[in-house]
Structures are given as C-alpha cells and as structure tokens.
Amino acid sequence: MGIIMASTMKINKDKLRIVTEVLFLILFFFLFRNNSLQRWIIFFGAGIIISVFTGRFYCAWACPIGTMMRPISWLYKKLQIKRLKPPSFMKKSWIKWGLLMLFIVVMIGTKVLKIKFNLLLYLTLLGVLISLLFEEELWHKYICPYGTLFSVFTRPAKYGLKIIEEKCISCGKCEKVCLNNSISILANKKRKISNKDCLLCFKCQEVCSVEAISFAKV
C-alpha cells in the first residue's frame, strides 16, 4: 500500500489533491443537507480506521475545512499577508480535549433533544473564519475535534512522510511551509517530522531541493 501511494503521489500531487478535495466537498455537501448523525459517525469512523495505517491523509486530501483554507492561504501568500501565531494558552492539552468533549456532547445532545442545529456546518464556518486571522496550525492541531482524535490514532501508522537524515542539509525550507508546524529541529540541526501531527500535504517534499523527504515506512 505504501509503495503504491508513494508512486501515485509523485505524479502531480497537487492536481490529484485538488480532484480528491472537490470529490469529498461534494460528498460533504450531501452529508450537510442530510445531517444524519449515523452517517457522520460511519464516515468519521472510517476515516479514523484508515488513519491508523496512512496517518492524517484525510486532513489535507478530504477535509472540507482544509479545502476552503487552501485558497485563503494562496491569496494571503500572494498579498504577503501574515497571520497571527496560535495563542500560547491554546497549546494546553486540556483545551483541545475539552473542545472535543464539548463537540461530542453538543452533537449527541442536539439529536437526542431533536434540536435542528447543523453543528458540522457551523464548525466548518468556524474553521474558515479562524484561518482568516490565525495560521492554520491553530485549527489543525488545537481546535479541530477530528484532528485531536487523529493525533492519537495516527501514532501506530506504519507509513508517512520521513526525512532522511543523511540527505538533510538543514536548510529549514520544509519547516517554513509546514501547515501544522509538525517539523522539529534535532540537536544536529537536521529536521524530523512528527507523524501524529503531519497532515500529509507533501508541501515539505515539494520544496526540498535535495530530495531528502519521502513517503515511506516510519
């Protein structure tokens, strides 16, 4: 599976990603209209199961919020508009877990009490609004309830983006383009990708001039 995925993504990953994003955006449109809790649970459950093997593939290739963040990021880059860094208090682990619990309680509660409230639609709008002011890391790593679950279930993933330390020239280009700040600096100035936080957007691989980043067994 890893070999097939790696070779496929090497063939114009950006176009392939746009196609998958559009297809999933259409799917989400129908799910939003139907607003069926059971269908959402099945969809999200399937995504979590897949993430155990492939990592956070869903985040960069299927998530509607990530899809809508793309043109915003592109425009901001063109206009050289800098967004705010995530507030330090949001990095406390209890906050993201508290938000996840709140999301679950509201989602189930509205169904039990038969309150017409499309939580996932408003969650999507919230994600887009946050991306207008803050770097995407704030949403992906600290607010998104699905992202919080992914950070746990992707830990045993066998495949992901990996920096070959022997090839790395410590230029830091990969670190600068990472959407989720998932690349850390080692003691020897080389870089390392955190598999549980990596969104698999492949931007780091695209900017690496020495081809030190590959999709491989981690």
Automatic annotation (TrEMBL):
InterPro entries: 4Fe4S_Fe-S-bd, Electron_Trans/Redox. Residues 159-188, 189-218 form the 4Fe-4S ferredoxin-type domain. The chain crosses the membrane at residues 16-34, 40-73, 94-113, 119-134. Keywords: 4Fe-4S, Electron transport, Iron, Iron-sulfur, Membrane, Metal-binding, Transmembrane, Transmembrane helix, Transport. One of its GO terms (cellular component) is plasma membrane. One of its GO terms (molecular function) is metal ion binding. This is 4Fe-4S ferredoxin iron-sulfur binding domain protein. The lineage of its organism: Bacteria, Bacillati, Bacillota, Clostridia, Halanaerobiales.
